[in-house]
């Protein structure tokens, strides 16, 4: 059982402020992923939770108890690093048992704890090997085993899969999700890989320049991004951003998109006026081949079997547009196509990059 609350946490290194007033309430048994570009402060925040770094201001609360000044060992937290940090001269068994030897745990309990962790992580037949005899994925499992035996309240992971190749990363993602369910533990996981975030998280914290841009479930961030930044970070292929000009604000937002296509979008028009520039966010998967809509010149076409991905530009303009269409879509590279777009699937961002909230359709007109 462990809840984790961060209250007004900030961090400066000398004159450089790298975290700004972070407030987060992480629930018991939640799998929360910190995601964001390099340098946004993910690892620093994780290290502050672990007690490896001291916050400049603010507090860290675990299960209602303020641990801001507690020693890392006394926080009931275990951290798994990208680099595995295994002892090369010790066997898998001794690597996993190491924290328990430090705690001077009696031999029968130690043996039981190592056997249980090895069983969970399918390492039982590897216990007598040295780390050098293991694959990258197996080494990372040993590092996780060393965390499990400590029976922590909270697991922290700092980019644990980034040293693995793509196929192994995919397998380990599934294993980590299963482990989370099996252990029923609170987990905080740092990555810059949005696929890892989307597939593993109960909730995602998107960080930008040391600030929380948005905290929500993967589907919440995908369907309701609060900012252009979140919209651009979540979803693969990335969302398209089409420059547009506001032509009216009555009964929705009337816009003139680059390339000449006009639409009326069901969003709140508070704060925008005729003539304002906006950007219309359109996900590649939210378009379909049609008779009228956006005219696209197809520059590159990728047939993946199940889907066809096109990379092109809008009309003769330079603005790029990516679409994800049916595997057998009747289109060819070097030609033009017209894409229809449902207005309710569009996201609109103002000049500050904030989303204009969607208007909910009244019940009786649905
Ligand atoms: N010990 C330190 N001294 C000075 N600056 C630091 C220190 N540690 C981190 N920083 C700075 O704090 C900022 C956040 O770093 P941090 O490592 O937390 O980012 P990150 O989001 O984890 O990045 P990455 O994905 O590249 O690991 C960066 O600008 C970094 O240069």
Written account of the structure:
The protein has 366 residues and is an alpha+beta fold. It has 2 domains: 4-232, P-loop containing nucleotide triphosphate hydrolases (Rossmann fold), CATH 3.40.50; 238-365, RNA polymerase II/Efflux pump adaptor protein, barrel-sandwich hybrid domain (OB fold (Dihydrolipoamide Acetyltransferase, E2P), Beta Barrel), CATH 2.40.50. Helices cover 23% and strands 34% of the residues. It has helices at 42-50, 92-102, 107-120, 136-148, 166-183, 194-200, 218-223, 228-233; strands at residues 4-13, 16-26, 31-35, 57-62, 65-66, 77-80, 154-158, 186-191, 203-208, 211-216, 240-248, 253-257, 262-265, 277-282, 287-303, 307-314, 320-326, 336-341, 347-349. A 6-stranded mixed beta sheet has the order 6-7-8-3-9-10, with helices on both faces. A 5-stranded antiparallel beta sheet has the order 13-12-11-14-19. Helix 5 links the parallel strand 7 (154-158) and strand 8. The mean pLDDT is 92. Bound molecules: adenosine-5'-triphosphate.
- Any idea of the CATH class of the largest domain? Alpha Beta
Count of helices? Answer: 8
Q: Residue-averaged pLDDT, rounded?
A: 92
Largest pleated sheet:
6 strands, mixed
Q: H/E series, N to C?
A: EEEHEEEHHHEHEHEEHHEEEEEEEEE
Poorly predicted runs of 5 or more residues: none
How many β-strands, per DSSP? Answer: 19
Q: Hetero groups bound? A: adenosine-5'-triphosphate
Query: How would you sum up the global shape?
Result: elongated
Label the structural class.
alpha+beta
CATH superfamily grouping of the largest domain:
P-loop containing nucleotide triphosphate hydrolases
* Percentage of residues assigned to helices: 10-25%
Overall radius of gyration? 25 Å
| Terminal residue distance | 43 Å
Output the strand order for the largest sheet.
Answer: 6-7-8-3-9-10
- By CATH, the architecture of the largest domain is named 3-Layer(aba) Sandwich
Strand content of the residues, in percent? 25-35%
Quickly count the domains.
Answer: 2
Q: According to CATH, what is the topology of the largest domain?
A: Rossmann fold
Organism: Octadecabacter antarcticus 307
Protein name: Sugar ABC transporter ATP-binding protein
InterPro entries: AAA+_ATPase, ABC_transporter-like_ATP-bd, ABC_transporter-like_CS, ABC_transpr_MalK-like, ABC_transpr_MalK/UgpC-like, Mo/tungstate-bd_C_term_dom, NA-bd_OB-fold, OB_MalK-like
Family: Belongs to the ABC transporter superfamily.
